[in-house]
Predict the structure of Golgi apparatus protein 1.
Amino acid sequence: MADCSCGKMSGTRRNFVFVIFAVVLFNLCLVNGKSIPKKGEEEQRYILSKDPTCARDVENHCSKVPRKDNNFAVFVCMQEALYRDDDDISEECHQTMWHYKFNLTSDMKFDEAATQICETSIPKVKECANPKLRDTKGFLMNCMVENRHEVEDTKCKGFLNKMAAIIFSDYRLIKGFYDDCHKDITTMKCAIITRPDDDEATESHEQSEVVSCLESRFEEIKNEKCQQAVLKVSELQSDDYHMDRPLFYACQNAREIFCKTVQSGEGRIYECLLKHSQEESMDHACAIKLLARSKMMQKDIKINYPLWKACEADYKKYDCEKERKEIKNPSEHGEGSLLLMCLTKHQAEGNPIEPDCANEMRSFAMLIFEQYQVSPLVVGKCDKEIHEHCKTLIGKEKDDGGMMDCLMGLAAKENSGMSEQCFTAITEVLKETGAGDNYKVDRGLEVACQSTIAQLCEGKQDSMILSCLMENTHNPKMDPSCREQVFHLQFFLARDFRLDSALYRDCKDDAKTICHATDWGNEKESTMPDNFVISCLYRNAILHDNPAHKTVFDKNRIPKVSDVCASHVKRVMHQRATDIRLMPEIEKPCMADLGKFCTDRHEEGEEIDCLQEHLEELQNKCQEAIKTFTKMEAKDFDLDKHLVDKCGAMVTKFCPNELQDKDGEQILPCLISHKNDIEMNAECTTALEHWQLIEMKDIEFSPRLKDACMDDAMKLCKDAKSKYQAVRCLSQKMVEDHTKVSSQCKLQIRKELTIQSENIKLNPEMFHACQDDIKEHCHGIPPGGAQIEECLRRNFPKLKSAACKKALFKQEEMESKDNGMDYRLMQICKPMIKKYCQPLVSTGDTTAIMECLRSFTHDTDMSKECKAIVFERQKEQAESFALDPELSSFCDSDVKRHCSREMKEAQKSYDQGHTDEGLVFGCLVDVLIGKKNRLQPSCEQYVRRREHEAALELELNPQFLEHCRDEVFRLCGKTPPEEVIDCMKMNIPKIKGTQCVEEVRKLIAEGIEDVHVDPFLEETCARDINRYCKDLPKKSGNVVYCLIDVHKAKNLHLDPDCDNFIAKRIQLYKDANVNFDSVSSVMVAIAESPHRNYIYMTIMIFLAVLFLGGTLFGRVTKRALAEQKNR
């Protein structure tokens, strides 16, 4: 049985109403079309239960009605039987009941009853108080029923509700409904239309299904008056679901299951049933009726009684009706959606909305999302997409948000073919429902993310859940289905900043001022696409964060993004950085390039990496978009999700200060400086190396370099296209003339060169030139830590590529001039540098680190690793004059004076990527031991020191190795390395190669000239040198000549070992044909003497006397001969 309660009326008042009904029914003897008896005629009370046409039916169906003389009670009972589809009610009884209702609701006496019961309420209902219409048959009753929501009197409202149950059971009883809608009803076959006096009136009087039919096919109604009539009926039914009899009966079970404790009235039952309309246990018939009812709410907002009641004040407060009229084609949206759009806009702008209204808005928004058919926009604009891609969801009464998710997912697919109008429609639905702020609006998302929310977002308020989910899309703990749902929503949020109400509220003014963005609904005013607004605000925010740019902004009067807006924008940009599809400012211009270069790169963040790797090959618009994004990445570590994922823990470990200061621009340099630390994660190292490679493509990708050197680069290196080229160019300018480059730029260039030297990939010129040699000699060696470069240096003679050798030599030359750029040396010898070269470290002077370290190579405390790398650098210096900056500095003038030919040959070698194999140094040694010319003291001192080192280490004498390698192997192959040189000296008669003989003779001569170059002699005769020769200079052969003189002297004696060794050396000198006692040696000795001026003067006087004497005696002799001849 139906629930016939009348709101909250007490039993007494309810009985009173029934009494009135009884009076009315007594005075209305209405049966089978007969009119009321006239005056004078016998009045006989009509009893429906005794009517011959219905008596049997009443007995069958209403036996439990206590008072059969109560016509109204009997009528209600019979009507319930009809709703139960009891087919055994006779046709005659159907007709009798129809006439009973018709006459009951149209007779003037019925209006009189309404006047009597609602006497105090009628004047308050403006529409019904019109005296001109009061006399119209049936007007008052229908009018009061239609406006019963304005009635406050309980007795009157109860009466009207009872009458409404009768009126709404048959469309023909509703005022004006028959006249306005009969054509549409017939056309749409919603019923066989008849008047009550028609002979063919054989159909059931229960025709509320006709109204339901018209509601479900509302769009097909052609008569505007009929449309208004249908809306009016639905509106009148909105507060009590009893008035919608088909829905009432279809949803009886559903009410018992879902809304048993919900009190009827004020639309509460409707609202409860709608909330549960997607439940599995919801009756199919009820779900269909609820859907039809929901669609009608979009035609007339008042049909949604709870929403209108809660929001009417705010609707009028913000003049939403005016805004509605300003919208083109408002019917495309739906009246309910327009209300949401208006109030959501004001809510987003920070204007207050009543809590009850906000709750009802949320409920209606969820309804729109769950039932796509409730949104005229989606149905009208996405019909093609729905039928082609989501057809399996068509017609489902329990959509549960599936269609919206299908369409949103379709939009996010590449080349989906979604029309712009459909995309715009979905965007509008998201905007009006506020789905970008409340995750519960999207039921599909809420269900898919329940477990994820419990794991990752526990304790967060509902308003923060979506943000939490977006921040965790890369988290492995997130459920894949949740990730997909969140992505679908993010895809749209990324394309219209207004969909995020918090972002819109705090950034709308900045967006309009700085980025010329549109207001909520004024798209025509915008000069920037909505999908570019966020990136525009973000660029402004991060540039303002940099003090270096603040002056420029102030000078040009560019406004600064507010702090609260900057915070929102950074949050959104960080969330979007997980997928290129969430960055329309990149995806749109780069679509073609993505297809060309990145078809196999689908992992998170890979597509951006791919485009960055192919930067030079991209189309212009795409290239500019990627450049812009990469510049922002360089200033904000959190924008690079690949780096965040791989290096998040390392930031905490190595860069806590930068993290605490939220200095995103300094985090990357900090991590790079720790890239090769033992505790650094390998995945982070790889990610950092990838970033460094990208950074090399443009100077603007390196904020520090840009700030320090951009002016210098624009002035001195205009042709430089990449960061690498700019750094190389500026470093070359520094070498040519250090005054050309600003001091701050010079400092930064040195840092950049040091960073580049760490990984050969950061030196694209050398990396590309050396590919083949790397494969052959350095396969499997990681590029980091300058390991591949070191491998190539050790295999320099074996390298096949001239371009590789040239590039490598260029790098070696740069590092030799500033050892701080020699990453391998600085890293391996870091503790030793701190120990032995602290003064240099404290002053920041790294140019002489190598010179410092080589002085301690024989120290037992020096690590083996550092000794080894220092020795490698010594070998390189020995092989090339250009790689020994000390030699170049001390001997530059001597090289020009004595070794110009060798220097020209060396330069040719350098140009071809070869070393000079010690040619220039060998020339200086020849000058030193030749005695014909003198070297500058500083040069001579340095050459001698290099000779000493070469005497101890065979590999530091490249000339000797070049000419004697085979002979060494043949004659001294089994000799310990430190004795090889001495072995070769002793075997000079056996040496076959002429050039090798010359090299050995040279070594012997060097040993005579400087005893330090003959370490075995020096060591064997150390005591005798100290005894007999300690006051003599250790050069120009003084010590060796001294020992030979003592050896020959009869009154002086050398130690037996030394004496024996000197004897062997004398024989060696003779075998090698080395002049060890020549005049030149005497002259050199004189030159070294402190009394050399006196000696020179004596010699000159002697020679002058000799010359004069010769001249004098020559003439005397000539005269004597002439006289003798004449005789």
Observations:
- DSSP finds 64 helices and no strands in the chain.
- Residues 1092-1126 form the longest helix (35 residues).
- Residues 51-172 form one domain.
- The mean pLDDT is 81.
